[in-house]
Sequence to fold (211 residues):
Amino acid sequence: MNGRSDVSLQAQLEFLHQALAAVVPLSGSAWQAAEPLFSRCRFEADEHLLSAGRPVDQLLFLTSGLARYYYLNRDGREFNKSFCGPGQVASSVLSLVTGEPAPFHIQALAPAECLSLRYTDFLMLADSQADWNRLYRRMLELLVIKKERREADFLLLSAEQRYQKFLAEFGQLAGQIPNYHIASYLGITEVALSRIRRRMGLTRVNEAGAR
Fold:
């Protein structure tokens, strides 16, 4: 965790407040109770926000940048699980809840600014503030929905349909993600992704995909 931010803490907090309020409205008093509990952190490109095999006790809310979730198997092969951008949270629910080591890595694909909140503080807010309790439930609901949809996509959709859904889900972030990372997320080769892109008329290769 290196570097310094040119963005003020207050600006980051205001951004996060707006992002979370888009999920569940947070009253002024509910947000004021949470503000002192956040701390700032910054990760450079390629640096890990968390590493597999280590327990996690914090939620990292991105206020800028881009990160990927990925698994690493015994042969050293990487499999991308998901991506995370501004306004989204990076962590491992399994590790937070059970205390077990995280099963995956989260790595910054670009310099990332985060606001960190300890899970114990998050639970305290959920127990004491109705708005935070609603946000907690909604975040868990959205996580389960996302997981079920991804499972269904792999079973029911073609690779091209999965790519179309990826573009719709990640929007502008998609153009910042290297093509080889996208291919891994879709469960196909980079060559297969190139063919799909040509069929869709997307002939320009992402600059972020150049290696």
